[in-house]
Amino acid sequence: TWCPGCGYFSMAEGFTVALKRHSIAPEDVVVVSGIGCASRFPFFVNAYGFHTLHGRVLPVATGVKQANDALNVVAVGGDGDAFAIGGGHIPHAARRNVDITYLVFDNGVYGLTKGQTSPTSVLGFKTPTSPYENGDQPLNPLMMLLAYRASFVAQAYAGHSHHLTDMIAEAMAHRGFSYVHILSPCVTFDKTTRTYSNLDMLVRDLPKDHDASSLTAAMAEATKTDHPPLGVLYREQRPTLGDVMAETIRKAKAGS
Ligand code: SF4
């Protein structure tokens, strides 16, 4: 179901290595996806999987986690699934600090439906839905996730597979809502903008002195979209949705 050369294969390999690194058994993992090429991901992973509805990955993943806190719940999707039809769910999963990992594979195009303009398509991109070039300003997902108060925000690139694996592993080790934005070329429907050869020249590591505890420092890096920064932009520790629910239950039982 994936084209040869698609960036998604790096994600499948990186995810498997991250699970091994953390000694997480397949029966303790649930991979939840929406709709789109990226949402085929559960088929490539030997664990529990839930291929849900378009844009509804986060409500389902939240339900799975709250039903069984012992599970490692990983939500996956592409830029269309995440930021078009599913865009209304992200702020609430982030601000509530649901203890899940969300991997968004951003190729800036709707691949499964044959190459239409997506919410992160670059200006000037020609597609069947923008034949005279895309004139819509692309979203900045990193800025959005930071503004939504995701407690872990990182960026990786499918062309740097070892670093990608590290980012997935760090995200899974984080307690709280961890978001990894993964730049991933669609080799079939984007031959001109976000290709491997273009991204190879543009991406850069975060500065060595980047302060990942500073929201303003993270936002400053997130604005530098001409040269996307790779690494952990931001992380903080705060109570998860599970912690808040446990406290609510305690109060209810105590009648306070
Ligand atoms: Fe990957 Fe694009 Fe093929 Fe979808 S259409 S599998 S995103 S290369």
Give an account of the 3D structure.
The chain has an 8-stranded mixed sheet with strand order 2-1-3-4-8-7-10-9, with helices on both faces. It has a two-stranded antiparallel ribbon with strand order 5-6. It has about 260 residues and is α/β, with parallel strands linked by helices. The longest helix is centred in the first third of the chain and has 14 residues. The model has no long low-confidence stretch (mean pLDDT about 95). It contains 9 helices and 10 strands. It is globular. The structure holds iron/sulfur cluster. Iron/sulfur cluster binds next to loops.
Number of helices: 9
Q: What string, H for helix and E for strand, traces the elements in order?
A: HEEHEHHEEEHEHEHEHEH
The gyration radius over C-alpha positions equals 18 Å
Classification by helices and strands:
alpha/beta
Largest sheet features: 8 strands, mixed
Strand proportion, as a percent range, falls in: 15-25%
Low-confidence stretches: none
Overall pLDDT confidence: 96
Shape: globular
Report how far the terminal alpha carbons are from each other. 54 Å
Number of strands: 10
Query: Looking across the biggest beta sheet, what order are the strands in?
Result: 2-1-3-4-8-7-10-9
Which small-molecule ligands are present, each listed once? iron/sulfur cluster
Helix content: 25-40%
